[in-house]
């Protein structure tokens, strides 16, 4: 399936610490909007001193010799990019005709000048875009990346950029910390399946930090029949000893090998905010 990558982690999520670090132009709308967590919104009749207010990154019309604008995003966690969604929602007559994506591996917090001099590899060749639409693009082969550079041709606006992939954790560095949360998304854990996620996504289970509200967790609809609800977490790597910690609503947790299996008794509202599996 060409869009199977949409089930992977968004490496450019603000929640994971991603940031938009540079852009050559942001005349109509700021670059920071590109990775906002929520979907882009439309505000009817709202204008700024430069034109219509838009929820995204929008550059001015090009009138020079260059053929594209660009924006650089530092990923929240290093990883292998498997696909992107170039979302042009609400950009109808002002979206780019096409885009391309480059990646580089430059650890730490490099400066804009250091990024400009980095070795970039094109992972998405120039591809056409549709306006007011999600534009999912699968990537077959890509190197480990800490940053991506979106190029738009010739100019225009993009509402959101989602960069889906697999986390490539630095296990040598993590080992020096001592105990490591094997289920954490920032270390490579993945929630691969669940019985139901009517109220809250299964992916919330392993996000960093504490839940901010009830909806910031995995929550199923109330079960009135036999059975139980369940979710499966693929741990970041196999370790000898595994411990689990659960919050209210979980009656049993088991961690074996590479997978963690959690089940919730029937007739119980599953509202677990976080699941943690540590290894020593």
Descriptive notes:
This protein has 280 residues and is mainly beta. The chain folds into two domains: 4-167, Galactose-binding domain-like (Jelly Rolls), CATH 2.60.120.260; 173-279, Galactose-binding domain-like (Jelly Rolls, Sandwich), CATH 2.60.120. The chain is built from two helices and 21 strands. Strands 1, 2, 6, 7, 8, 9, 10 and 12 form an eight-stranded antiparallel β-sheet that branches. A four-stranded antiparallel β-sheet has the order 14-16-19-18, with no helix packed on it. Strands 13-21-17 form a three-stranded antiparallel β-sheet, with no helix packed on it. A hairpin with a 2-residue loop joins strand 3 (47-48) and strand 4 (51-52). The longest helix is centred in the middle third of the chain and has 5 residues, at 112-116. The protein is globular, with a radius of gyration of 21 Å. The protein starts with 8 loop residues before the first strand and ends with a strand.
Task: Give the SSE string.
Answer: EEEEEEEHEEEEEHEEEEEEEEE
CATH architecture tag of the largest domain: Sandwich
The radius of gyration over CA amounts to 21 Å
Number of strands: 21
Which homologous superfamily in CATH is the superfamily of the largest domain?
A: Galactose-binding domain-like
Number of domains: 2
The main β sheet shows up as: 8 strands, antiparallel
Estimate the mean pLDDT confidence.
86
